[in-house]
Amino acid sequence: MYNSQLPSDGSNAPTGTSIGVGVFDQRTERHGNERIRFLLKSFGLRTSLIRLKVIDALLTAAESDRSLGVRGVHTQLLELDIPLSFLSVREVLKRLCSEGVIVLNPDKSYSLHPRAAAALRHE
Description:
Elements: H1 19-42, H2 49-63, H3 70-79, H4 86-98, E1 102-104, E2 110-112, H5 114-121
Antiparallel strand pairs: 1-2
Helix pairs in contact: 2-3, 3-4
């Protein structure tokens, strides 16, 4: 059957698209997620999407010398079109704190526990 969206040279790529960009972005994100998966596993925690995203938000903020509280993490996730409730974010942060992955600082911001940071460096 003829498909007018497929090029006539027999390749499966629709004309006018950039296949490499999307694939590259997924690989980059997956590599970042692998670091966080390793971290969670080293603390005996299961991997979940919300844990991955919350830790990634904290790591991204730390790279920019910023600190985030619950509201900051929630806002950052919303800006990335990750629709998580404020309560879900707060509960994940509390659980990660209780497991020693992150710490609650005196200013009510969260950061990676030194032991967790060391685990990421030695991955």
